[in-house]
Specification:
- With 370 residues, this protein is an alpha+beta fold.
- 32% of the residues lie in helices and 29% in strands.
- The chain contains ten helices and 17 strands.
- Strands 1, 2, 3, 6, 7, 8, 14, 15 and 16 form a nine-stranded mixed beta sheet that branches. It has a five-stranded antiparallel beta sheet with strand order 10-11-12-9-13. A three-stranded antiparallel beta sheet has the order 4-5-17.
- The mean pLDDT is 98.
């Protein structure tokens, strides 16, 4: 079974390996070594050269003897900033960072759980099903590692990503798609004190467009937000350009496209009102997915959770993950919670008990015939 002290030690080691997005080389090398030591068929790819990372996606396959669908276990190697020089601190059974960085349980709790569950199997000689492992680059940078995976290397039809906040037992079966909007509002420069009537204020036009938008929570499935509204000019110059970056997300494709169109149309209306020009493009960053409650993977996961005395929570999320990309590439996938809490902040923490439950759940899945 799971070695709790070894799991804790492993997690503490992993979070102290610097791996902010784009700097995953050290983590890549460590995981290749760990997987090879466990007897996996291990390989890497050249995805890092395509996405400005010094690391690589890591693949491993473990042939088993038990019957059952081959599952893909996945987690991402990168962390958000500030993620360098993490110094983990344990207080009352909870792991924090020292406060100057994130902890990195997003997503090294998932990685540690996968590696310890395999170690426990190999150490005990317990029969297991065939399974695959993928550790990805740059999930925090827009799932770029998953987007550049060599999917011909993956044989599994079902996958699970260890990459959600919340307690073990949470199964995320539905997530939104996302469209990003990149817009330049172009006006005309003029001296703001001598001849302002000769100018067209890009800020005025862009602001009028934004004012027309429905933003933030649109409905239970749809959100929208503006992240960048940028123009820097002296106050005596009528500004001739504003750059805007925005997004919309929805678990409903029609709503997603409708909200993106509404935001672009609003900007166009603002430009028309003040005589400015709109240069805009919309990029679908990822698409939504939804696995029904009676999907074989969901049924198996829920059963495994119940076998631990935990009632599963099947739910949806408003965030994207590598799982969106796996589903798009024909691998029916869900996201599992690992207990990570307050992720992407310096207050991030995880209970040791949740690390242990994550590893135990994976061990049960790997060693149970289906």
């Amino acid at each position: 079974m799971i070695n709790k002290q070894r799991l804790l030690d492993l997690f503490l080691e992993y979070v102290q390996i610097d791996s902010e997005t784009g700097n995953e080389k050290a983590m890549t090398e460590r995981l290749v070594a760990d997987l090879k030591a466990l007897g996996g068929e291990v390989s890497t790819d050249d995805a890092g050269t395509k996405i400005d990372s010094n690391g690589a996606n890591v693949y491993a396959r473990f042939e088993g003897t038990l019957p059952g669908e081959t599952l893909l276990y996945t987690a991402h190697m990168d962390t958000v900033k500030p993620g360098n020089g993490v110094k983990p601190v344990i207080r009352d059974g909870i792991i924090y960072s020292s406060g100057n960085t994130v902890l990195g349980s997003d997503d090294k709790s998932g990685i540690a759980g996968i590696i310890e569950s395999i170690r426990a199997i190999k150490e005990s000689g317990t029969p297991h099903r065939t399974f695959e492992v993928v550790f990805t680059l740059s999930e925090e940078g827009g799932m770029r590692g998953a987007k550049n995976l060599d999917y011909s290397r993956i044989k599994a039809k079902y996958g699970l990503a260890l990459d959600s906040s919340g307690e073990v037992g949470k199964i995320v079966t539905q997530a939104p798609g996302q469209i990003k909007i990149y817009a330049d509002v172009i006006g005309r420069k003029a001296h703001a004190g001598i001849a302002p009537e000769q100018g067209i204020s890009a800020i005025q036009a862009a602001a009028a467009g934004v004012a027309k938008m429905k933003l933030l929570r649109i409905d239970e499935e749809t959100t929208a937000n503006i992240g960048i509204f940028k123009a820097e000019y002296a106050t005596n110059i009528v500004p001739d350009r504003v750059y805007i970056m925005a997004e919309t997300r929805s678990r409903n494709l029609d709503k997603l496209n409708a909200q993106a169109k509404h935001m672009v149309d609003s900007l166009q209306a603002g430009c028309d009102e003040y005589g400015a020009t709109l240069d805009c493009r919309c990029v679908t960053n990822y698409v939504s997915f939804h696995l029904p409650d009676d999907h074989p993977l969901v049924v198996e996961l829920a059963g495994a959770v119940r076998s631990m005395g935990i009632e599963p929570t099947i739910t949806s999320t408003g965030g994207g993950s590598d799982t969106n990309i796996f589903n798009l590439n024909g691998i029916d996938s869900v996201v599992l919670a690992t207990g990570m809490t307050k992720v992407h902040t310096n207050d991030e923490y995880i209970k040791i008990e949740q690390l242990e439950l994550t590893a135990e759940l994976l061990y049960r899945l790997m060693t149970t015939a289906n």
